[in-house]
Amino acid sequence: MENKKNDLRDREYRTSRVLDAPVELVWEVWTTREHVEQWWGPKGFKSRIDLMEVRPGGEWHMVIHGPDGKEYVVRSVFKEVVPLKRMVYEMHDRVSGLTFTVTVELEARGAQTLLSSHTLFETAEQCIRMVKTLKADEGFRQTLQRLNEYLIVRIENK
Predict the structure, then answer these.
(1) CB of 45 within 8 A of CB of 51?
(2) Does 27 have pLDDT greater than 70?
(3) Which of 28, 45, 46, 64 has an alpha carbon 20 to 30 Å from 138's alpha carbon atom?
């Protein structure tokens, strides 16, 4: 019998996006609280970062404010940090009650950066709930769009 815990296919969500900025700038705006507050969250959402310690064992405390006034409290702990290349963090979403692991990898492509994200849930049901029911896939797509727009403005203003 196959061990379901080892079969990741039904417990993971993957996405990628080419960003219109060099990897150094992408890293800076992903790891600095003042920048993250400007772009994190789907369209219409605003974020407040209360703590951002980008190092193994460091914590990331964030409150995301929805356009409907609802607050989403998220707490993360960084498990691995390789500057300009990779970060792995365990994220706990208090609203959904879910805890999952996110791996973000950056690949320099000249003046652009390929960002790849992998989210691993404990169970297939959690993945379905977050991605299909709560529409986290669309929310993250919009978040990456906001990130790209923010990066472009940063480049234009230099």
Answers:
(1) no
(2) yes
(3) 28
Fill in the DSSP letter of residue 110.
T
- Alpha helices by DSSP H, listed for 32-99, are 33-39
Is residue 6 one of the residues assigned to a domain?
Answer: no
In this structure, how many other beta carbons lie within 10 angstroms of the beta carbon of residue 50? Answer: 12
Give the CATH number of the domain where residue 76 resides. 3.30.530.20
74-126 pLDDT, tens per residue? 999 999 999 999 999 999 988 778 899 999 999 999 999 999 999 999 999 98
In a domain, residue 2? The reply is no
Q: Which among 15, 6, 11, 14 has a CA at the least distance from the CA of 127?
A: 11
Distance CA 81, CA 60 (A): 13
Query: Which two tokens mark 46?
Result: 């605003």
pTM exceeds 0.85 for this model: yes
Q: What gap in Å lies between CA 90 and CA 32, rounded to an integer?
A: 18
Residue 5 maps to a domain? no
Q: How many helices (H) and strands (E) does the chain have?
A: 4, 7
Instruction: Give me the domain span that covers residue 82.
Output: 11-156
Structural domains of the chain, count: 1
